[in-house]
C-alpha cells in the first residue's frame, strides 16, 4: 500500500455533501413543470430529519 494517497473521511464526507447539495440545486432546473407538494409531504421531510437527528444524537451520547 505504499505510494497510495490516504484521504481522511472528513474530506470525503464534505465532498459528498457538496455533491448532494449540487444535485439538489441543479437537477430541478432540468425538470418540467410539476405541481407543488401536498401539505403532508411538506411536513414529512422535517419529521424524518428530526427523527434521524434524535437517533444519531442518542447513538453518539453512549
Task: Give an overview in words.
The chain is mainly α and 62 residues long. The chain has one domain. It is built from two helices and no strands. It has helices spanning 9-26, 39-61. The longest helix has 23 residues, at 39-61. It comes from Ficus carica (Common fig). This is Transmembrane protein. Keywords: Membrane, Transmembrane, Transmembrane helix.
Question: How would you describe this structure in keywords?
Answer:
single chain; 62 residues; mainly alpha; 2 helices; flat
- Overall strand count: 0
**Mean of pLDDT:** 83
Class by alpha and beta content: mainly alpha
By DSSP (H or I, 4+ residues per run), the number of helices equals 2
Distance between the termini: 35 Å
Number of structural domains? 1
Largest sheet: none
Low-confidence stretches: none
Beta strand %? under 5%
Order of helices and strands: HH
Shape: flat
User: Whole-number radius of gyration?
Assistant: 18 Å
Helix content: 55-70%
Quick structural gist:
The chain has 62 residues and is an all-alpha fold. The protein contains two helices and no strands.
Amino acid at each position: 500500500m505504499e505510494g497510495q494517497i490516504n484521504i481522511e473521511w472528513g474530506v470525503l464526507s464534505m465532498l459528498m455533501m457538496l455533491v448532494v447539495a449540487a444535485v439538489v440545486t441543479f437537477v430541478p432546473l432540468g425538470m418540467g413543470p410539476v405541481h407543488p407538494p401536498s401539505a403532508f409531504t411538506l411536513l414529512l421531510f422535517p419529521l424524518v430529519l428530526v427523527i434521524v437527528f434524535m437517533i444519531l444524537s442518542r447513538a453518539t451520547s453512549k
